[in-house]
Amino acid sequence: MLGIVMSFIGLLILYVSTRLIPDRYAQFKPFAGIGYFVLIGTLVYSLFNGIFFYAEPGFKYHVRTITGQEKIVSDTGYNSYLFVRVNAW
Predict the structure, then answer these.
(1) Residue 73: phi, psi to the nearest 5?
(2) Measured distance CA(55)–CA(76) in Å, rounded
(3) Euclidean distance between the first and the last CA atom of the chain, given in angstroms as a whole number
(4) DSSP state, 25?
(5) Least packed by Cβ within 10 Å: which of 10, 22, 64, 65?
């Protein structure tokens, strides 16, 4: 949800600074830079949430990756699952 909101805000900033006021683009160029920064941040945030998960202490996780590998994760901390599925038990 946060990624969608950040993407919308970044696109809105870029649209306003480049399309609605093109004759004043030089004046609002820093806002376009902020829009690009927000979009890149959104991309990084979304990729991080799609690749890694946080393993809670006391749980074991069955992880199936996009390459078809299946593994059991029992250590605490961030682990990768590459966009597919994690089951806690």
Answers:
(1) -115, 125
(2) 5
(3) 26
(4) T
(5) 22
Statement: the pTM of the whole predicted model exceeds 0.85: no
| Average pLDDT estimate for 60-88 | 82
Tens digits of per-residue pLDDT, 5-50? 777 777 777 777 677 666 766 676 777 777 778 778 877 887 777 7
User: Strands 52-55 and 77-80: what pairing?
Assistant: antiparallel
Left if phi > 0, otherwise alpha if psi is -120 to 50, otherwise beta: which for 82? left
C-alpha torsion angle, residues 84, 7, 43, 19 (rounded to 10): 140
User: What is the phi/psi pair of residue 66, to 5°?
Assistant: -70, -20
Alpha-carbon distance of 56 to 13, in angstroms, equals: 38
**Tokens 């990768």 map to which residue?**
80
Domain spans of the chain, in order of start: 2-50, 52-88
